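Hi C.,

You asked whether I'd gotten around to modeling the 133-residue construct. I have! Everything is below, sequence then structure, no commentary in between.
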Amino acid sequence: MIAGLIGALILFFVTMPMARRQHWSLARKRRHLDAAGFERAMARVGVTSTTARFLWRDLGAFYHAPLKPSPSDRLESLIWIDRPEVEGIVLRFWAAMRGQDAIPAATLPPDPSVADLGRHLDLMAGWSLKGSA
């Protein structure tokens, strides 16, 4: 038990600098998006503005400056967000948007992009760009 905890801490501190370097390198290669630009980019891939604003706020904690979320970012392989953390984002969205409603049984594809996550959240909530979000 203690060895597992120590191993997890070591893994965290070893991978953190790699994630920072990867995020810095990625940020230098692409155009900077602000919140409004992110919302427009998400709308182009079929995500409602309400969901895009939620994701901009919620995903920000997983990005190392100066990198900001982009619809094409792969959450697990590129940004290094663990699957339980991705599922936590889904649960926080559901609690914020639908409160005490029963959460529908829906699964995300492996290594979803930010756009995939946004469309998944919209579908769970019953929203679409043509809908009532």
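If it helps when you're writing up: Helices lie at 2-29, 35-44, 49-59, 83-98, 114-125.

Thanks,
B.
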